[in-house]
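job 3f2a | input accepted
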Amino acid sequence: MPQVTMYCTAVCPYCVAAEKLLSAKGVSTVEKIRIDLKPELREEMMQRTGRRTVPQIYIGDTHVGGFDDLSTLNAAGKLDALLAGS
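job 3f2a | predicted structure (86 res):
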């Protein structure tokens, strides 16, 4: 399973929802990059993703986007393959 990385904050309900969905899909570890603890990481996130909002989720080297994007990917049946590294 590829590494899952998520830019997040402590009080973001969408971050929590994304983590729950990933957990339900069998992801046991999410590398969290807390931009609320290190504001300079928000700039890194924006340069890397082109977005300002959290969460911003990567599965391996693939930028999935935020929770809505993750949920849409799951509804389309494409999240399992991405998590399997396919």
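job 3f2a | Residues 10 and 36 are 7 Å apart (CA to CA).
job 3f2a | closed
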